[in-house]
Amino acid sequence: MNNTATMRRAYELINHGDIDGFGELMAEGFVEHEELPGLAPTKAGVIDLFRAYRVAFPDLHMKPVEVLESGDRTIARVSASGTHRGDFMGLPASGRHAETQLIDIMRFDADGKIAEHWGVMDMLTMLQQLGAIPDGPPAPPGKPAGH
User: Fold this and answer.
1) Is there a contact between 56 and 98 (Cβ–Cβ < 8 Å)?
2) Residue 3 CA from chain centroid, whole number
3) Where are the domains of the chain?
4) DSSP at 91
C-alpha cells in the first residue's frame, strides 16, 4: 500500500468509527506535532483524541479533498464535518452541524506506518458554527468590536 492510499484509509477508518483500525496504521513510536490539550503527543494520545471526537461528533466525516505525496510525506486538504452530540473540549452538545477545513501532513516510516503528524484546523470557524463564540467579521484595526 502506498502512502497516499494509507492516508486515505486512515480517514475511512475514522469515518466508520474504527479507531482501533486507524491506530494500527500508526507506528509504535508515532509523534504528534499538533498541540493536543490534555493529551500526550503519542499514538495513544491521538487514539484518545479521535475517540473523543467520535463521542462529540458521532457522524464525524473526514473527506480528503486533495492528497499530495512527496517522498516519505503525504499532505491532505480535508473537509471535516459532524453534528455536535456530545461534550467537546468542555462545550456541551449543541445539536449543531459544523464543517471545517484542515491540513494534515503525515510522515511515513520504512514499514509504511504513520510515524509523525503535523496538522492545522480552522477551529475558529468550527467554534462559531457550534455557537461557542460569536461569528462575524473582526473589528477594523484601531476600533473595538461593536463600534
Assistant:
1) no
2) 18
3) 3-129
4) B
CB 74 within 8 A of CB 7: yes
From the list 49, 60, 55, the residue with the least C-alpha distance to 93 is 55
Q: CA-CA distance, 130 to 95, in Å (whole number)?
A: 8
- State pLDDT tens for residues 44-79: 999 999 999 999 999 999 999 999 999 999 999 999
Secondary structure of residue 22 in the 3-state scheme: helix
> Sign (positive/negative) of CA torsion 102, 53, 4, 118?
positive
Q: What span, in angstroms and rounded, lies between the C-alpha atoms of 72 and 118?
A: 14
Class of domain 3-129: alpha beta
